[in-house]
Amino acid sequence: MSRTVTRAVSAMRPGDHACFSFDHPSEQSSVVGGYVVNGLDRGERVVYLAEDRDSRVPGLNLRPGREQERYLDTGQLRVIPRSSVCGASGEYDPDLVMAVAGEELHRLAKDGYDAVRFSADWSWALIRARGEERLVRGESAADGAVGSSPVAMMLCHYDAALCPRDALDKVHSCHNATAVSHARFDDGVLRLAPTFDPHGLRVEGEIDVARHAAVTEALLELSAMPGDLLVDLTGLRFIDLRALRLLAEFPGLHRDAARLVLSNPPDFLVETIRTVGDRLPADLVWAEGRGT
After folding, report:
1. Alpha-carbon distance 235 to 242, whole Å?
2. Which residue numbers delimit the STAS domain (predicted)?
3. In the chain, what's the furthest Cα-to-Cα distance?
4. What is the mean pLDDT of residues 21-45?
5. What is the pLDDT of residue 141?
6. Of the candidate ranges 105-109, 167-171, 222-226, the one whose mean pLDDT is the lowest
């Protein structure tokens, strides 16, 4: 590939042919649902390739007021059955994929839309016989077509638990972008992004006094789900002592909030805790084998 960028689904734009591999269905629902809703809110057409036996768009109906039938009725959302891109043998056919996409592009302006978002879960095609060879050809063709289009973008998603790693790497390389989930907070200094298996929050950057409120808000949003909330500190570059106290005291300060379990502390944090540990709450909880 001549270029590969990392793009949050909320920032995708025409010309992006993005690949997204997920580890858990809730991750797929969050990312794909966000991509679809973003397009619907912008007045774009959304075309989703669905399994014939299940025409649900992942994550769409989980959002209040986003009932799928509403968008199907207006024509803004089109759900295409998987059989439309399969040949007589039932196998994925790259030529049919491009033909279906071409038909959708042809009707776009006639139906009154300025842009279109395509999306499909191609896991089924990759794990079929000769699926890797067919998908590499199809994804490469799509990359050329979408990458040069001023009106089209596409999000391809794959189940990492089902797809062989080497095959997934090959199809991933046929995309000009890598899609990531929309961050709960990102101001260029601190990025807070949800994780899904396990359920939690990934912290990247610096937590100082100006960002305590953002951390608290993100934790409150995510702690509504049952069970512990894992806070991955792998990408942490700085954290002040007040923020560490915030993490330790979070469940006690917020009724019904989940217990926070901290993981992957960077070396500087381990050293800080060893140095000033007597000034911190004793109830910092660390993931097994990851603590200090």
Report:
1. 19
2. 201-277
3. 70
4. 89
5. 96
6. 222-226
- Residue corresponding to tokens 């806070």: 231
- Say how far apart CA 43 and CA 34 lie, in whole Å: 14
How far is residue 89's CA from residue 292's CA, in Å, rounded to a whole number?
57
Coil, strand or helix at 68: helix
Contact 49, 155 (CB under 8 A): no
Instruction: Decide: residue 212, CB within 10 A, 0-12 exposed, 13-18 middle, 19+ buried.
Output: middle
User: How large is the average pLDDT for residues 120-132?
Assistant: 87
For the chain, how many residues are written? Answer: 292
DSSP 207-257: E-GGGHHHHHHHHHHHTTSSS-EEEEEEEEEEE-HHHHHHHHHHHHHSTTP
pTM for the model? 0.72
> Quick one: angle between helices 212-222 and 241-253, nearest 10?
30
Which of 212, 211, 204, 269 minimizes the C-alpha distance to 231? 204
In the chain, the amino acid numbered 170 is K
Instruction: Kindly state the DSSP code that residue 182 receives in the 8-state scheme.
Output: P
Phi-psi region of 113 (alpha: psi -120 to 50; beta: other; left: phi over 0): beta
> How are the residues of the chain apportioned to helix, strand and coil, as percentages rounded to the nearest 5?
40, 25, 35
Name the pairing type of β-strands 152-159 and 177-180: unpaired
Compute the CA torsion angle 254, 258, 261, 263 (nearest 10 deg).
Answer: -100
Asked whether the predicted pLDDT for residue 56 surpasses 50, the reply is yes
- The residue written with tokens 């973003």 in the block is 38
Query: How far is 73 from 75, CA to CA, in rounded Å?
Result: 5
User: Could you tell me the domains of the chain?
Assistant: 5-180 (3.40.50.300), 185-279 (3.30.750.24)
Q: State the Cα–Cα distance between residues 193 and 186, nearest whole angstrom.
A: 8
